[in-house]
Amino acid sequence: MREKGWGRKFKRKDRPIYAGLNRIDGKCPLTPLEVGMMLRGMGFDNNTSIYLASGKLYHAERYLAPLKKMFPFIYTKESLATPEELAPFMAYSSRLAALDYTVCLFSEVFVTTQGGNFPHFLMGHRRFIYGGHSKTIKPDKQKLVLLLQDVGISWRDFKLQMGAMLLENNRKGMIIPRVKKFNRKTSIYTFPLPECGCLQQSNNSTALEVPRSSSAPYPNLLTSR
C-alpha cells in the first residue's frame, strides 16, 4: 500500500527500502492479527472493548477478520457515530484525527503499534490523567517480531514473554526523566515535564480524574493506534 501511495520514494536509488530489515528493526506497524495475539498473550480476554483509531485500513475486511474473532467488541468512529454526526468532520483529516485522539486519551488502556507524533502526544498527555496511572502499552516490536517468527514457540512461553513485556511497559510508564537525562532522542511530547511551562505553573489542572470500573478484571475500553 505504501509503495503504491509513495511510488517516487520507493524508486529513489539513493534511499533503498528493505522491508524485511525494517521489520526486524521494529520499524513496521503491527498487523491486526499480530496485535490480537499480543493482547491475548498479555491477558486481555474477548470481553474487552477495542476502539481502532486509524484512517482507511488496507483490505480492512480481510485483515481485520482474525482480530474480530479474538475481540468481537471492536469499534471505530464510523461505527459509533451516525453519518450526520460525522459530516462536519469528513472533509478535514485533522478533525477526524482529533476524534480518535479524544477517545484514546480517556481510554483505560492505549496501545500504540506504530510511530509518529500521534502516539507521542498521547503518551505525554496521558501521564497527567487518571491521577498519573493511565496505562499505555508500547510493545518492544523488535522482540515481538522475533517471537512471532518463532514457529516452535509454545503458547505458554509466548504468554510468559507478553506478560514480561506488559510489566516492562507499566514500569516505563511511571518514569519521567530528569532534566539532565534529556537528549535529542527524548521526545518533549512523550515527556512534557519539566520543559512544558504551562504544566509547571499548574500541574493540578492537567491531572484529570475519570471514573472507571473497579470490578472488571480487564479494561472496559482499550484503544489501538
UniProtKB/TrEMBL annotation:
- One Pfam match, given by its short name, reads O-FucT
Q: Which domain of life is it from?
A: Eukaryota
**Keywords assigned by UniProt, alphabetized:** Carbohydrate metabolism, Fucose metabolism, Glycosyltransferase, Transferase
Listed InterPro entries:
FucosylTrfase_pln, GDP-Fuc_O-FucTrfase
Signal peptide range equals: none
Q: Name one GO biological process term.
A: fucose metabolic process
Entry keyword annotation includes Glycosyltransferase? yes
Q: Which GO terms describe its molecular function?
A: glycosyltransferase activity
Q: Which PANTHER family match?
A: O-FUCOSYLTRANSFERASE 10-RELATED, O-FUCOSYLTRANSFERASE FAMILY PROTEIN
Query: Hey, which family's this protein in?
Result: Belongs to the glycosyltransferase GT106 family.
Protein name, please?
A: O-fucosyltransferase family protein
Native species: Punica granatum (Pomegranate)
Print the organism lineage.
Answer: Eukaryota, Viridiplantae, Streptophyta, Embryophyta, Tracheophyta
